[in-house]
């Protein structure tokens, strides 16, 4: 675990740059201020350029976080970039547009994710994924709860070690990885639609298209 090598917690986000926003930066800054010595690993395709990095540094400094606590990495091709999770203890999900693939990848690499459940589909992806792996307690209901959840998890190093060593098995055993079961449910839905169409003589679909 990175903490065991470095002696400090590393938070991280590999979410797309377009998903990052001032409200998110405010929460992340509060998390960093609440965990002395911690740092934030930021990695996405936008960080190939100096200008976005400089803008982020200025924003975090305005929020009371020294630039030395920010670690920037450009986003490389898959699957090599997954090695970045070897440097991250806790992933911080983006909001209001949550990560989907990014969250699954973090969990697969053993990194727990703190998310905030919003009021629309794109803001509930994190809650759905974490719920399926039995980690609903890492889903916050407000920005302040998001901050508190991240800080509390950072202080429970034993739990972080346990999660890191068992997360891939947890994910593999969840319904998220039940490809056969998902396919059966999808096939059943197709059959149900076909039976309804047959029993209506096609009238229901015709009416919908009219």
UniProtKB/TrEMBL annotation:
Pathway: Protein modification; protein glycosylation. This is O-GlcNAc transferase C-terminal domain-containing protein. It comes from the Bacteria. InterPro entries: Glycosyltr_41/O-GlcNAc_trsf, OGT/SEC/SPY_C. Keywords: Glycosyltransferase, Repeat, TPR repeat, Transferase. It comes from Candidatus Accumulibacter proximus. Gene3D superfamilies: Glycogen Phosphorylase B. One of its GO terms (molecular function) is glycosyltransferase activity. Residues 9-185 form the O-GlcNAc transferase C-terminal domain. Signal peptide: none annotated.
């Amino acid at each position: 675990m990175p903490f065991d090598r470095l002696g400090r917690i590393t938070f991280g986000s590999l979410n797309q740059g377009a998903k990052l926003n001032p409200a998110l930066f405010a929460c992340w800054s509060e998390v960093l201020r609440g965990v002395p010595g911690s740092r934030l690993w930021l990695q996405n395709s936008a960080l190939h350029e100096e200008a976005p990095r400089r803008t982020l540094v200025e924003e975090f400094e305005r929020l009371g976080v020294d630039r030395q606590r920010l670690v920037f990495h450009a986003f490389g091709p898959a699957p090599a970039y997954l090695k970045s999770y070897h440097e991250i203890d806790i992933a911080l999900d983006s909001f209001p547009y949550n990560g989907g693939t990014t969250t699954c990848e973090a969990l697969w690499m053993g990194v727990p994710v703190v998310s905030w459940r919003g009021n629309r589909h794109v803001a509930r992806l994190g809650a759905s994924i974490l719920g399926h792996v039995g980690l609903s307690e890492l889903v916050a209901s407000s920005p302040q709860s998001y901050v508190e959840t991240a800080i509390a998890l950072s202080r429970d190093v034993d739990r972080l070690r346990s999660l890191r060593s068992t997360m891939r098995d947890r994910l593999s055993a969840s319904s998220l990885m039940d490809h056969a079961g998902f396919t059966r449910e999808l096939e059943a839905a197709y059959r149900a639609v076909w039976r309804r169409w047959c029993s209506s003589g096609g009238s229901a679909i015709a009416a919908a298209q009219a």
